[in-house]
Design a protein that fits this description.
Blueprint lengths: L20 E6 L3 H17 L7 E6 L5 H11 L4 E9 L5 H20 L3 E8 L2 H7 E3 L2 E2 H20 L1
Parallel strand pairs: 1-2, 1-3, 3-4
Antiparallel strand pairs: 5-6
Helix pairs in contact: 1-5, 2-3
Amino acid sequence: MTTCEVPKPLGSNLSARDMRFAIVASRFNDFAVSKLLDAALACLKEHGAGSDGVSVVRVPGAWEIPVFARKLALSKRADAVIALGVLIRGETLHFELIAREVARGLASVAEDTGVPVIFGVLAVENRQQAIDRSGGQGGNRGREAALAAVEAVAAMRELKT
């Protein structure tokens, strides 16, 4: 009788050693974005990413994130791009317009370049939700985005072999 081995999932090696990451983080709503960024950097370091393998670009707001993500992805200086920002719903359609286009833009970058682009842009109803998801009771989405980036790069490398 033979046993069947369950294959190891792609990207399950969580070592970030020898990986390069670019983080694009908005300055708008920095009370939350800075916490996302700090957690992402800490996570990458915990998983073995060297400081020379991580670059951070701060941009004015979420609207600017996709164009900088594209530039970084095309530069071949990063194995994955992590996008961090916070959009808080207001009383006008501005929130919906920005959120939709940022998501569309980042998806386009990933599809066009083949470089994983991790969506760490929060689109929340209010300030409290932003606080909760950037280190409060909802965890920290910056950390989750960084971990997803490590997994994505590992999976991409495994697919190449």
